[in-house]
Structures
1.
Amino acid sequence: PGPPHLRDNIEIKRYMSFAILALLPSVIACIVYYGAYVIAILLVSYVVGGIIEVLFAVLRKKEIEEGFLVTGLIFPLVLPPTVPLWVVAVGVAFGVFFGKEVFGGTGRNIFNPALVGRLFITIAFPSIMSSTWQAPFTDTITSATPLSIFKTAGELTPYSDLLLGLTPGSMGELFRIGIIAGGIFLMFSKVSNWRIPLSYIASVFVFALLGNFAFPGKIAPPVFQLLTGGLLFGAMFMATDPVTSPFTRAGKYIFGIMCGLLTVIIRAFSGYTEGVMFSIILMNALTPLIDHFVLSAKYKPA
C-alpha cells in the first residue's frame, strides 16, 4: 500500500477543490492571453483523460476518482498555447494510463501523471513541443522562450515582462503573479506543505547565485531563474503533489532542495532549456527512498 496519509477521501476531495481554486488565476490568464483555443485544449484534456478514468473505474468496479480533476487541469497548463489538439489527447491519455492507472489509480502512483504525459510528448514530438511558442496577444510563432534566449544569446528578458507573463512559454507558467497567489493560498489553507515549494525556490536561488558567479555565461542569475520557465508553477503545483512527494518532514526539504539543484544543472548543462519537469520526475522516483532513509535514520535502533 502507498502512503496512508492520502487514503482519507475527505482529504482528497478537499485537496482537489482547493487546488482547482488555486489554479484558476492561471487558467483565466491563459484564456485572456490566448483566447478560445485554450478552452478547446482544456476540454480535450478533460474529455480524453476522463474517458480513461471512467473505463478503469468500471474495470476495477470502483468509484470514479476526483484525482483527475486536477491532472486534467494541470496537464494543459504545461503545454505550448499552439499545441495541436491531437497532441493534447495523446499526452493526457499517456499520462493518465502510464502515470497513474498502471500503478492502481489515485494515491498509488509514483509519478505526477501530468508530468508523465508532458514528458512523453516532449520526447515523442520534439519539434511541436519546442518550436511553437507564442507570445501573449500576438500571432507570431517563435522557438524563442526567455530560457532559450539566455542559453543561445546570453540575454535576459525584463523581469516585469516575466512577472506579467508577456513572454512565450507554456500556457500556465506565464502569469506568475497569479501562480504566486495560488501557491500561497494552498500553503495557508494547509493543502500543500510549504516546505517543498520554499526549499525548491530557495535552493534554485542559492545554486543559481553560486553558479552564476562560477559560470556566468552558462548559469543565469537567481531572480531570472525564478521568474522563467515552469519554475514557480512546478514548485507550487507539481512538486507539492501529496501523492508523489515525501511525507516525512526532512524528506520534504531534501526533495525540494534536490529539485532546485537538478533544475539549475539541467537548465545550464543539458540539451534542454528547461529542467523543472525532469527534476520533479526524477525526485518523484526517489521519494520512497528518501522517506525510507529519513525514517530509518529517525528510528535507528540505539
Note: The first helix runs from residue 9 to 34.
2.
Amino acid sequence: MSTSDDTGGAASLHLPRTAALGPGRGGQQRLLVDAPAGSGEIYLQGATLTSWRPRAGKEAIFTSRQAVFDGVRAIRGGVPICSPWFGSGPQGDRVAKHGWVRAMAWTLRSVEATAQAGVRALLSLEHENLAFLYEVVIEETLRLSLSVRNTGPAPQEVEAALHHYLAVGDVTAVRIDGLDGQTYLDMVHGGAHEQAGTLQLSGPTDRIYTAEQPLVVTDPAAGRRIVVSGVDASHAVVWNPWSQGSKGYVDLAEDEWPTFVCVESALIRERAVMLKPGQSVSMGSQIRVEPL
C-alpha cells in the first residue's frame, strides 16, 4: 500500500495510431489497442479491460459471450474494478456487491504509445467524494494501477480489488502456486484454513487469501502459465462458480465455467484504508504469460 496527497494531472486526449475509440458490444464505447507489444480492449463502462493478448500470444482474459453491455449492469468477465468496497464491505453492511465503480461510466483522460511498443491509457471517475484514476498499460506484460483520493470533508474507508478473469484451457487441470502456507477464508464452505501445497480446483471455489506474493497459474491445456503479481495489495482471491454456481448467472453461459479462473489482487478487509480528506491510496497488479 502507498498513500499520498498528490493526484497529479491528466494530459489532453490524443490517440496514437495503435489505438482507436468507438462503439463495441451493445453500442458501448471502448478503446481498442493493436500495438506491436500486445492488443487489448477497454470499455469505458467500469473502465473494464475485456481483452489482453501479449505479442504472439493467445487471449489471456476471459469475457463471457453472454455478458450484458447495457451501460448499467457490470460486465461479466474481463477485469472489473471492485471499489470503494469489496463484497459487502469491511463491516458487511454495504448493499451493492463489490461497490459501484464497475458499473459506472468512466472518462478516458489520455492514451499514448509506450517506449516498449505498447499503449498506456488513463481513465478517471469522480463520485461520492472519491476520485479514481486508473492506468492500463498494454504490453507484453499487462500493468494495472488504481488510485483513489478522498475529495470530501470527512474520512472515508476504501477497499479495492482488481478482479482478473483469466482465460484457461481447462480449469479442472489448472494448478495455482504461491499460496502454500497462506491462511484463507473459505466463502463456500466456511471457516478459516491454511493452504497446503498447490491449489487445484475441484468444485465451487471462493477463497480470500492473505497473500502478497506472485501467484503462478499453470494451465496444461493451454500450454502456458499466467503469473499474477499484486502491487501494494494485501490479499488474493480465487473464484470459480463451477457447474453448479454458473447456472445462477444470466450473464454467464453454463458451459463457460471450465474456461476461466478468477485470481484477484485486492486491498480489502482488515487492510481497508481509512482515507482522510485529501489523502489517496494506490494498488495494482501485473500479469505476464509464459510458455510451459
Note: The first strand starts at residue 2 and ends at 4.
3.
Amino acid sequence: MAGNKKILAFEISGMVFIIVLGSLLHFTYEMSGGSPIVGIFSAINESVWEHMKLAFWPSLFWVIIEFLPLKKVGNNFFTAKALGTYLMVFMIPLIFYSYTSFTGESIFAIDIASFIVAIIVGQILSYKLLTFRLLPRIGEGIAILLLILLGASFVIFTFYPPQLPIFQAPSEG
C-alpha cells in the first residue's frame, strides 16, 4: 500500500509538471528566436500537431524523472507511461476537432481546459497501470518502441510537416 501512495504522489506531481512545462514550451520557440533545437520540443506554430508536442515532451521528461523512484514499486512502468502519454497526446486533437466541428472555431478557454484534462486523464491511466497486476514483459519493449516512434514523428514532422490540416496553423488554412 505504501508503494501505491508513492506512485499516486508521483503521478499527481507529474500532472503539475507536465501542465506547467507544456505551458511554458508553448512560448520557448519564439523566445529562442526560432532555434531549431528548441523547436523540436516547443510549439513552432499554432497547429494542433504542435500543441500535441506540448504534452509529449514534458510527459517523456517526467518518465525519465520518475523511472528510478518507481521502477521497483510500480508494475508495467513503460507500458503505463507509454499508454498514458499516448492518451494525453491523442486526446488533444480528439477534443479539439470534436468541439470545433460544432463551434466552427477554436475557443482559447476550451483549448487550455482540454490540455489540462488530457494530462490528468493520461496520468490517471498511468497510475492505474502502474498499480495493476504485472502484464507480459513484451509489452514493456513495445511501449518503449512506441514512445521512440512518436518522439521521432514529432522531430521529423516539426521540420517536414505533411500538407494536412493537423499540421497547419489556423492562419495557414
Note: The CA atoms of residues 17 and 129 lie 20 Å apart.
